[in-house]
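Supplementary Methods, section 5.1.

A reviewer requested that the exact input to the structure prediction be made available. We therefore reproduce it here, unchanged from the version used in the analyses.
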Amino acid sequence: MKKRAQGAWVTLNASYYCAPVCHPGKFLDDASLLLEGARGITQSLADLLSQDVDINPDDLAKALWAVSLLMEMGQSSAEVAHGRIRRMRKEIREVEDGK
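The structure derived from this sequence is encoded token-by-token as follows.
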């Protein structure tokens, strides 16, 4: 995986950025969905690996890469939500202090 570009949500072959108008709660919802998907894939892989089944190492590597990417995306989504919540709280405090 490439190093994430400054401010990017995720970087693959291109860098992707979060929409500036999206509510932090939506980012937290996305983080939950992404991390739940990663957990589901890892649980399925663990179940499969515990059985006596031939597994293609290339397919396993691709699946693990996908899990890693989903986890990075979920973490990035949570980080963006956290940053926006902090900014919102700061703006509210500034308005309250200005009264």
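The chain has a mean pLDDT of 90. These observations are discussed further in the main text.
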